[in-house]
Amino acid sequence: MPNRARITRRSFLNNTAALAGAAWAAPAIVPAAVLGADPEKPAPSRRIAVGMIGMGRQAQLVNMKQLLKMPDAAILAVCDVDAWRLAGAKQAIAKEYGGGKPSGTYRGCDACVEFRDLLARRDLDAVMISTPDHWHTPMALAAMEAGKDVSLEKPITRTIAEGRRLAETANRLGRVFRVDSEFRSLAHFHRACELVRNGRIGKLHAIRSGVPAGDNVDCPYPAGASLPVPKDLDYERWQGPAPRAAYHEERVHPPKTLGRPGWMRVLDYCDGMITNWGAHLNDIVLWGANSERTGPVQIEGRGQYPPSRRLWNVLKTFEIAYDYAGGLRLVYKTDKPYVRFEGSEGWIQVDYPKGLTAEPAKLLDAQIGPDGVHFRLKSDKQDFIDCVKTRQETLEPAEVGHRVTSLCHLGHIAVHLGTKLTWDPDKERFLDNDAANQFLDQPIHAPRHA
Which residues have C-beta within 8 Å of that of residue 129, sequence separation ≥ 6? Predict the structure, then answer.
């Protein structure tokens, strides 16, 4: 693929979606037949056929395990560019579906390296995408064009323009889309947001959110450090729309293990904790504030990057202030993971994973009548599968996921440029700042000091 390095990310997105659409443009009609379904589970007419793209740490340790236990979903195909991970996933699925089953009807799970081969299958209703961040939008767009509903790991985008395109594509094609964040399914966050949305703390005027700094210690390797590419890894495919760089396991992931990957600390593939955990906690921020489909009008932030020209180069720490048109202020920073809502009659704080406190404390005992605002409480995976069946909007659809991730991107751009920014949330452009607007459709690939 000698010319891949000269392809821009924007053209890569266009070509990927076009190829997938050409492979199969017909809409997916629920449900597809599930080959070899256990007769004790729901009939094939009630089970959703799922393909999984990306079979790394998050996919195998979390997403796949949950889907395998769901009686109304069946994983029929998996895809990864790492042969060791692909084989492990296929083996685990075979053990769950076929091991020890007396019916003997299980026919196996297909495995492929090229994600477009998975998308071309007509027997899949939906896909779960759990790849590195730089692949999220290209694969999700291609999947929707190929007729599939999509559950997409967060953060769903690398740029604000990608998010707008995801939302428009899901709406145009009528696809079910779910941001794969479990935080709306956690009882304490659910309770806090219902209380705030029902006015139990009075008029909301301030929100504070925090995310852990993570384990981004200063990397000892320079940006150009290289090692031989492992034989199990198709590194060219792994890079995809990202800039070309020499292979190093701390740039990708440790071979033959599901350990924490290095790509999460490299700006070519990920924005770091500002979007990683930020897409969790700030989703709760916007949910409680009823600001899921808009954005701030001013952003100002500061932060610290690692030393210059290191392999790991995402932000280490940051603090960002966002102002909304109605006077609401959000302060988002590296800290412990929490969300705090402050109103005219009290405050409510959720400390992840289990803490829920309020002042006055009696706020937590408040009852919400049948005419109040209520949200459904179910797992993120069940919410997605149910909505594939019913064609309802999920708890975190593409438009909401776009606004949540955009909030993180806006903060990163403000920190990167070191200036106060004015934002139009309707037009989704910065006012009178060409330097900031250039990052609407291109990721930040290097710290300002580099």
Answer: 52, 53, 54, 135, 136, 139, 140, 143, 150, 151, 152, 153
